[in-house]
Amino acid sequence: MATPKEMLTTWDKIQFGAVLPSFEDPEKKIRSKFHSYNYKVADWRVEKPVYNRDLCIDCDFCWVACPDSCFEVEEVVNKRGKKQAKIVGINYNLCKGCGVCVDVCPTPIKSLLMFPEQIDNQEALNQWPKKEDK
Amino acid sequence: MKNIGNLKEFACTPDRFQGGHRLCPGCAHSMIVREVVNATDDDLVVSTATGCLEVCTSIYPYTSWDVSWIHIGFENAAAAISGVEAMYNALSRKDRLYNEDRKVKFVAFGGDGGTYDIGFQSLSGATERGHDFLYVCLDNENYANTGGQRSSATPIGAHTSTTPRGRVSYGEKQRKKDLTMIMAAHGCPYVATAVPGTKHWKDLAQKAAKALSTVGPTFINALSPCTTEWKFKPEETVEIADLAVETCAFPLYEIEDGHKLTITYRPKQKIPIEEYLGRQGRFAHLFKPENKWVIEEWQKNVDAYWEYLQRREEAGV
Predict the structure, then answer these.
(1) B residues 138-197 near A, CB within 8 Å?
(2) Which domains does chain A carry?
(3) CATH number of the domain at B7-315, out of 3.40.50.970, 3.30.70.260, 3.30.980.10, 3.40.50.2300?
(4) In B, residues 9-48, which contact A (CB 8 Å cutoff)?
(5) B68: which residues sit within 8 A by CB, 6+ positions away?
(6) Fewer C-beta neighbours within 10 Å, C or N terminus of chain A?
(7) Does A28 touch chain B (CB under 8 A)?
(8) Which residue of B has its CA nearest to A61?
(9) Does A49 have pLDDT greater than 90?
(10) Which of B18, B29, B62 is the closest to A69 by Cβ?
(11) Low-confidence spans in chain B with pLDDT less than 70
(12) What local confidence, expressed as pLDDT, does residue A6 receive?
């Protein structure tokens, strides 16, 4: 990944009608170095969301509500033969730690929770609140 | 028209608006934009008026858009997109299109400053000329990009940097301009209001798909809660947007052919407006005893407007 400094030219070297191509290869969907997908906004956040695969019901609410498109989905075919999106994980390069995903998560014990940035993901999963026995 | 199924199917669409942009954490702009650009399978040409969205998604040398995108001034997003559409039609008449099999749709995004105030002349002109495009207004009720000045979308009582609260002032003095009805009066084939979020995502996506498949100028007014200037916590964006609908401060409806109004969502029980105002820091001063009358005025306006919408839907004119 090129640093912004390498890519940035001065204002007098920008050509008129310059185009920033989003894709290196549009057919294979390979994103170019000009795409903000390859930029890191990770240093904006103080707390990070941690995703718990075991509790997730794949409602995709977090996907539609995430302002930064950080939820990576994978297309799978369900039992009825319909395609559906399965949440795979969070792209921590793009996440700004706003917490919208935790707010919209509908499961009884949230499958997304905010943890301090320095905690390891596995450690966070061990600290997850357990279901109360009645 | 793309069939918007359930959310699980919708999430399979390849994202055409990616992250890595520099919008504030919890900004609703990107939620709306993603749903609109994903609501069609056709190719898109997007023009964006100057504003938060334009500034944050296209910081040189990065772009967040997977679709063709034009940067344009504050006042002429609609003029630019109507020019592109006219050019496309001219080329297709002369059989000089790059790829004839693929359909192209035209979308313009503008903030409320670029739509309600500065860009209104070009939007009105493009609508009057009858170009085939969709204009989406991302309405965050102030000039958020330049530090939160008032715009004509700012509702009564709101604290902004040019209508500050104080000992004498209670904030913005004027009521919000009803742009959706003004656009309907232009005779647009399709005009609608929408909010982002999880509860009304399908409403927004369906409206976008319908607007994109309609021939002629179409307009969507989308409420975009602004975490920085409305002064609430970033994670509450979706809750605030839902509250705006539940209190009928921002009712969801659509108008076809300039007159046929349909209310697309009716709250089961209308919540008092204090719930919506109390969650936002910009209305905190309204809860002082001397400013109570502004809240009463709010409630009165909201009730009257909701009543008007229902009557108009019943009448069907």
Answers:
(1) 196-197
(2) 44-127 (3.30.70.20)
(3) 3.40.50.970
(4) 9-12, 14-15, 17-23, 25-31, 34-35
(5) B43, B44, B45, B46
(6) C
(7) no
(8) B198
(9) yes
(10) B18
(11) none
(12) 57
